[in-house]
Amino acid sequence: MSAEPLLKVRGLGVTFRTGDRVTVASQDVNFELKAGQVLAVVGESGSGKSVSAMALTRLLPPEPNCVIQGEVLLNGRDLLKLSEAELTQVRGREIAYIFQDPGTSLNPVYSIAYQIGEAIRLHRPEVTDVSAEVIHSLEAVHIKEPARVAQQYPHELSGGMQQRVMIAMALACNPKILVADEPTTALDVTIQKEIMDLLSRLRVERGMSIILITHNFGIVAHFADLVQVMRSGHIVEQGPAEQVMNQPQHPYTKGLIACIPRLGQRRRRLTTLKDELKAS
Amino acid sequence: MSSAAPLLEVRDLSVHYPGRAKWFFQKPEPKKAVANISFSIPRGKTVSLVGESGSGKSTTGKAIVRLAPVTTGEIFYEGVNLAPLSTSAFKPYRKKIQMIFQDPYNSLNPRSDILGILSEPLEIHFPHLSAADREARCAQLLQSVELKPENYLRRHPHELSGGQRQRIGIARALAVEPELIICDEPVSALDVSVQAEVINLLQDLQAQLGLTYLFIGHDLAVVEHVSDYILVMSKGQIVERGTPDQILHHPTHPYTQTLLAAVPKF
């Protein structure tokens, strides 16, 4: 792990302006990610974790409504200084995203084959046989009948299958970094396990880095190398996953870990964040 | 289970939805969402239905409050079979059985303020209340779900967070003083921290008001925490039933073992 980090983020901050109101969504975010590493960003809704991830490739409203500060260095190149046209080459090609709700991320009026094909045609013009590449990408996410699924429309697929298609689409362009924004929150636990297993397998096969955004510490444990805990726009704690999970320093981190019900440990009441923060 | 007569007893319940025929001359094949299930819920207890999406657990809950059609079977509430009752004869049971939904965003009327949302069931089931009495009752309901009435009565659902909206959903269910509440994945759409608060609230209310819950969920860790008795559903059937201890430590059905393995452990 002596390699130069793939992604270096320094002093990243996002500020929204609406009328005369200024909202600081995230502030002073710093981290480094090496190739093949998984960074988990944990926090409640509204803590700024998604906004920070979107800011990496400026997937946010233009200035002056939204101001992004800091540096995002991908292999030494500052993404925030690139033009819109150059950024389009980075989005999808080098940093790809999958979102929480696969149902609304897919276009309902186009077939799966068309939508994955679109990404391939845009980012990999050298590919001549696009439909074979589509089938190949569906096989990569362990879809059993890729040829049949490719001809289907999003509404014909279950939530778990839709999320697989989103992952297939994101991976079709061989990105270096995959940003997974709550990829399993909308799915039930058995499907959640399948998707997380799939992501860890793909990470090993492709040596891809993953930024996993979640509010649930439960799925971080066996998956992440690094953990970053965010609260109201700030990073309150970060470090190697084992250290943060086993010896959390900040009361907010302790609270987030404590409030998850665990199998076989029945308690009269669940610990809430308020209890945990009051106790400290 | 307890020797006293159960509050709710479901016998051989089946729910079939009309299916679609592949060709126009074929007979449509009905979709069997729930197939011949039986269970009972003792008063004051929590019985849970757990299973993945599509297993028929929500349909079972909906069939009890007539949001889904009962194809065959009987639903006894305090010994009265609800299934054959006419709509008007069923009305008093709507007051006794209430439901809390998974998605607090879509289950509240966006055009109405919180006072309006909580008043509506009162107008139907307690028509003798004056407007002032209704408002007082709404304020009391908000207090019981730990929201300050003066801050919330005049607000609209879009101004609230997910957890606050779910509290309003619970307050609305409590408005008519129900005995049985069907909680259809009440915490699946919430953050882990808010999830813990809402579960604690549901348990506190059960202790205060002697409520009976039918809790529907897919996360065994949550279900194990809240239940007295667990029913595991798969493909429209109950494949395993038992106390949380039995289900957790001695699961016999392979499907239950899959569900247990899916819960993140750390």
Describe the SSE topology.
The complex is a heterodimer of chains A (280) and B (266).
Chain A: E1 7-18, E2 21-33, E3 38-42, H1 49-55, E4 66-74, E5 77-78, H2 84-90, E6 95-98, H3 102-105, H4 112-123, H5 130-140, H6 146-150, H7 159-171, E7 177-181, H8 189-206, E8 209-214, E9 226-231, E10 234-240, H9 241-246, H10 251-258, H11 273-279
Parallel strand pairs in A: 3-8, 3-9, 6-7, 7-8
Antiparallel strand pairs in A: 1-2, 1-4, 4-5, 9-10
Helix pairs in contact in A: 4-5, 4-7, 5-7, 10-11
Chain B: E1 8-17, E2 31-41, E3 46-50, H1 57-64, E4 72-77, E5 80-81, H2 87-96, E6 97-100, H3 114-125, H4 131-144, H5 149-152, H6 162-174, E7 180-184, H7 192-209, E8 212-217, H8 220-226, E9 229-234, E10 237-242, H9 244-249, H10 254-262
Helix pairs in contact in B: 3-4, 4-6, 6-7
How is this structure best summarized?
The complex is a heterodimer of chains A (280) and B (266). Chain A has 280 residues and is an alpha/beta fold. Chain A has helices spanning 49-55, 84-90, 102-105, 112-123, 130-140, 146-150, 159-171, 189-206, 241-246, 251-258, 273-279; strands at residues 7-18, 21-33, 38-42, 66-74, 77-78, 95-98, 177-181, 209-214, 226-231, 234-240.
Spell out the key features of this protein.
heterodimer, A: 280 residues, alpha/beta, Rossmann fold, six-stranded mixed sheet, four-stranded antiparallel sheet, globular, B: 266 residues, 10 helices, 10 strands
- Mean pLDDT reading of chain B: 91
CATH superfamily of one domain in chain A: P-loop containing nucleotide triphosphate hydrolases
Order of helices and strands of chain A: EEEHEEHEHHHHHEHEEEHHH
Biggest sheet strand order of chain A reads 6-7-8-3-9-10
- The number of helical elements of chain B comes to 10
CATH architecture of one domain in chain A: 3-Layer(aba) Sandwich
What is the molecular shape of chain A? globular
Average pLDDT score of chain A: 89
